[in-house]
Each structure stands twice: as structure tokens, then as C-alpha cells.
Amino acid sequence: MSKIKMISLQGDKELSRLLKRLPLAVNKKAINGTARKAGRHVVSEARKNTNEVTGNLKRSIGIGSIKSKDKSSSGVWIGARRGGDNKRFKGYHAHLYAYGHKGRGANKGKGNWIGEAADAVEGKVMNELKSEFGKRLDDAITKYSKRF
């Protein structure tokens, strides 16, 4: 069973209070933008580790958005995308690649290959998060403050 990796940003109490007071749009723009940029490292590593015949799975690996039902929080996920515009993402068989199958040409599967890619580039991701979050937050606050 795959594990979901969560990265929580922690800081002093003043930063936490500031983030809570900011509108959700500012938080979402800063946090999701930073997570998307840092997630590109995981996507490229996962694509390198995917050795499938047609290339559909490799091309479908990407970053998607997550929203809570009450829209109070948001985030990003990394994995095989399915469907989309004109059904251009054809990652429908990602679970078979990960966990294997018993049918014709049976294989045992690669296991949690997205998680392994995330583990391999964890240092790069954390450095990207550290360097990018402050810039994005500052830009979002500046843009938001121009409304007033």
C-alpha cells in the first residue's frame, strides 16, 4: 500500500499567525506555487525510473491540484494523470505498473515508484521549498496589498 507524503511547513508563532490571517487566496498561491515548483524534481525522477513500452505512463506523470470540499485548504499531488483534454493523459495502467497483475505477461510490479522517486530527490525538494516559499509569499502579499 502506498504512503502519502505530507510536508508541513513549521516556523515560529509569528509566521504561523501571519499565515492564518492572510486570505486563503494568498496562502494557496504561495504554498501551491512553491509545491508545484519543488514537485518538478519528483516528476522528472519518476519519469526516469519508468521503463514502459509505449511511453504513455511516462508522459502522464505530472502534478495536479487538490481542494478540500469546503475549500478551506488546498495542495498538490504527484502521480499518473488520466483523461484530460481530448484524453491526452493515458496513465490508466499506473496501478498495474506499481502493483503488478496476474494476466498475460504477468509481472510483480515496481512497488511505490513515485514514493521512491520522492525519496531520491528529497534534498532537492526541501532546498527548493526553502528558497522559493519566501519569494512566493512576498509576491502574493504584495499583489494582495495593492487591492487596498
Short description:
The protein has six helices and four strands; from the N terminus they run αααββββααα.
Could you please describe the fold and organization of this structure?
This protein has 148 residues and is an alpha+beta fold. The protein has one domain (22-145). It has helices spanning 13-21, 24-49, 56-60, 94-99, 113-120, 122-145, and strands spanning 61-67, 74-80, 82-83, 89-90. A hairpin with a 6-residue loop joins β1 and β2. α2 (24-49) packs across α5 and α2 packs antiparallel against α6. The model has no long low-confidence stretch (mean pLDDT 77).
Based on secondary structure, the structural category is alpha+beta
Count of domain modules: 1
Largest sheet: 2 strands, antiparallel
**Proportion of residues in β-strands:** 5-15%
Task: Give the C-alpha Rg.
Answer: 18 Å
Strand order of the largest sheet: 1-2
Output the helix-strand order: HHHEEEEHHH
Put simply, the count of helices is 6
Question: What is the approximate shape?
Answer: elongated
Q: What is the CA–CA distance across the termini? A: 49 Å
The percent of residues in helical segments reads 40-55%
Question: What are the SSEs and their pairings?
Answer:
Layout: H1 13-21, H2 24-49, H3 56-60, E1 61-67, E2 74-80, E3 82-83, E4 89-90, H4 94-99, H5 113-120, H6 122-145
Antiparallel strand pairs: 1-2, 3-4
Key words describing this protein structure:
single chain; 148 residues; alpha+beta; two-stranded antiparallel ribbon; two-stranded antiparallel sheet; 6 helices; 4 strands; 53% helix; 12% strand; elongated
